[in-house]
Amino acid sequence: MSLLRIVQKSAKWSLSGHQAIGRMICSQTNTKYQVDRRKYQTINTSRDVLMGSHKQQKYEQFLSIPQREQIGNNESEMASLIRSTKCLLLCHSYNTLSLAVATELRSFGAEVDVKVIHNEHDFTIADEGDFDIIICPFLARRVPERIWSNKKRPCLIVHPGIPGDRGPASLEFAIKNKALHWGVTVLQAEEEFDRGPIWAYSMYPISDRNTTKTELYVSEVTENAVDTVLRAVAKFKQGDSPKPWQYGAVDIKGNLQPKIKKADRRIDWNQHASDVARLIRMFDTQPGAHGFLKGIDGEIRFFGAKETQPLLYCGDEMRDLLSSAEPGEPIGMKHNAILIKCGEDSSLWVSHLKSNKIPGVKDIKLPATMVYTRPLAEMNTLDYEDIWVERRDNVAYVHFDFYNGAMNVSQSQRLQTTLKNIKLQDDIHIVVLMGGKRFFSTGIHLNVIEQVDEPHIESYANIEAIDGVIKEYVQMEDKLVIACLQGNAGAGGCMMSAAADYTIAHKCVSLTPTYKNMNLYGSEYWTYFLPKKIGEEMALRLTSGTDSIMASEAYSIGLVDILLGRNRYELQDNLHRTVTAIWNSIDAGLFLHSKSRRSEKWYENLEEHRAAELHHMKKCFSDPAYHSARRNFVFH
């Protein structure tokens, strides 16, 4: 009998059994994976993290740059150098990158304090504390000279660009120039921005040619920043010095980039859709590319661009409509997105717009048809979907890639319908909830709620619709349901994943298992599934706070069952065989039989939890504290 079978036999589908199976799959698969990204060699032997080979393009320029320096012989040697180091993190906000750096430093034994810098006075913590090193993973302010000039306690800046790259728009220019690779550099703070000596750097391929600035930041930049900071701290602890640099050196390939001006963000609809889409992606999610639409006075900002595939249009009527329209003219709609004519008879889908020039429309990002309200033809084309299903063997991968992870009422209802159809297919044994690239889900759509006349009513309808989605897959008694977190999970997404049979995430995912930031009690059946998954004490602790946690922490407490890779590419490469391994490691018949034996009383109990949650939420939705928190969020 295999070890996995022994674990399954003794587990009896308890919480510990789920974790044991997840850990065993990880440990049996993770002997020593080598990720080959065209000479980008990374040996990862850390526990329970699966990695696999990722198909890459040829990067001739990429190969000419040394990818990274090695510090020590293995992870334990790195840990021995970093252990007990007193680190101060200074950041503009405690975002995913800052959280990831702090979490990983602590996992290596460092003592980490984090200070969010709101004003100059906040820098005094660096003067008062007894720190060995200061790290700025995400800081929008200039570091005072008294701090960076202290050579005994260096101040390190994390710059999201390759060595030699300088300026505040590194990722924007990487996308604009169609860079095949990019990097992260940790350098020492000096008077001149991004000009200090280099402590460490990492290079990575830009694998997704349709990535946005923010997607690149929360994925590749975050992953590589963590690794680069660790190596920089280790170098400091072993007595090394940073490397001065000059243009022309073999590893200095970047340049000083000019400051982005408003004119650089302006859309010219006479350009081909691919060029317009690239411009929008450069400034998505902030501040947005801007331009005009035929039929609307005043400038608009554009988000969520997707170039169309002309061969997928349905019928001559649609093609005629495209050829007769003017560049910058909306010609159709689908799922609240609008299709806009561009140059060379090309066209572009845009999912969200923002304008402060339209009466009755608030200056926030909204689904495009809530801003552009003129009648448009509903287009039944195949080239734009925010919900789709991929079938492989007996597995259905359900993607719901909603902008910023927010799910409004209609999106939730369409997702529920998709799941209802899957539930009826007897030959599907496993359902994998994929969410989107950047977010699994963030729950209710706060921007849509802010725009409507009666936010409290829309809020309640929205949470009920999301509850309906969860109920749909909870009732899949003949299928194994797995939540796969390719991207971050807000409160709603975190609780959605807790209701699945298993949860998989990669190492750079962050989860926010609390509703407190919006002054909400929460729903999504969390009062039933979260304590079942991680225990009542831990559930209370998480939901009583306001903090996000990284997937590695979520794994350690049982909120995530399997850590799969360091990023979504490695997760995607290994997902199907991992899903299959889960299915093979359990007694599928016994497992599904246990689900099918859920009694009427069990479902009644579940609905009682939902009813109690909604009772609390109805009160929350009428509370000024919620409305204030929501406005602060959507107008930030």
TrEMBL record:
Family matches, as PANTHER family: HYDROGENASE MATURATION FACTOR HOXX
One Pfam family named in its UniProt record: Formyl_trans_C
Domain Formyl transferase N-terminal, residue spans: 130-217
InterPro entries in the record: ClpP/crotonase-like_dom_sf, Enoyl-CoA_hydra/iso, Formyl_trans_C, Formyl_transf_N, Formyl_transf_N_sf, Formyl_transferase-like_C_sf, HoxX-like
Native source organism of the sequence: Owenia fusiformis (Polychaete worm)
Residue span(s) of domain Formyl transferase C-terminal: 259-355
Name under which the protein is recorded: Uncharacterized protein
Domain of life from the UniProt record: Eukaryota
